[in-house]
Amino acid sequence: MSGFELEHPWLLLLLPLALLPLLRRRRDALGYSYLPWLPTDRLGRVAGFFGTAFAVTAMATIVVALAGPGQPESYVSRTGRGAEILVLMDRSRSMDLRMMPSDWRSIDPIIRTHQAWARGPQKSKTARDLLSKFIDERADDRFALMFFSGGPLPAVPFTQRDSLLQAGITAAGIGVGLNETNVGRALTAAIREFDERPYSGSRIILLVSDGGAHLDAATQATVASGLARNRIALYWLYLRSINSPPLDVEDPRTEMAPEIALHRFFQGLRTPYRAYQAEVPEDFERAVADVGKQQNAPLDYLEQIPRRDYSRYFYGAAAFSCLMLLIYRALQLRSWT
Fold first, then answer.
1. 59, 149, 188, 284: least buried by Cβ within 10 Å?
2. Distance separating alpha carbons of residues 330 and 166, to the nearest angstrom
3. pTM value surpassing 0.85
4. Band (1; pLDDT cuts 50, 70, 90)
5. Can you give the residue range of the structural domain that contains 18?
6. 14 and 101, same structural domain?
7. Residue-wise pLDDT tens digits, 13-53
């Protein structure tokens, strides 16, 4: 049957062993001088029948359980509203620093920097908390999770299993980040995650980072062509530090800053791009909410149904049969004494 399989079907060759309890044993025969004098023992015959049946059932169900019965893995086509979103999260050491506190504009500029480093919430924790909430609220989306520092660190492939994604986000909080940040390699790896996937709806790379990069011409061409080939929209959640330039600044002196250089390259892409600058946690929360509102188009996807293991039911039947055999044997011994 297509809905049933055995992991080790050859073990069914042991099934004939279940017939052993049907064979008569010499100790079952009792000597008696004249059989017609024996009274009819209907209860004993019924008990003997069930004792044999439980013995056969116990051996048969153990053999079937060892063969590994179950329903094979399958895929079900579903349609929802949402997008395929790859979260590309910076895990460099700078993400372990703090964002600016919510009231930073009211702080005396003389002590503003010190207050920002001392009182602001940690960037990576803020990002993890809000992304976790974002994933919880989007049940129909398919998410993938990838971290990066000096290179890409794939964490969770595309899935709808929130538990896996939440575990991956939690794992990002273990330890400290690395010193190097290579946005170009990370973006290239993120784009490759879409290469072998059939197009079924909106696609997004959600870049969460507090820094930029000067990408060389070859990397820029690879990123631009990959985004266009796979029809991917790029969203950058820029976690700005107190000493980092804002993305909307028009000062020529900041054009060489890595953050501005990366922003200008993204603005020149032929594919959709949007930047969200988050200076305080409230900015980041509003940015995540806005991304959620924009990407809510019809999405066709295949849901993976994992293999179901039925062996536990057979083990349960075997355990029950063994228990009945013990009770039957105990009653039998009691009647003999």
1. 188
2. 52
3. no
4. very low
5. 5-28+40-72+307-336
6. no
7. 998 988 888 877 655 556 665 666 666 667 767 777 888 88
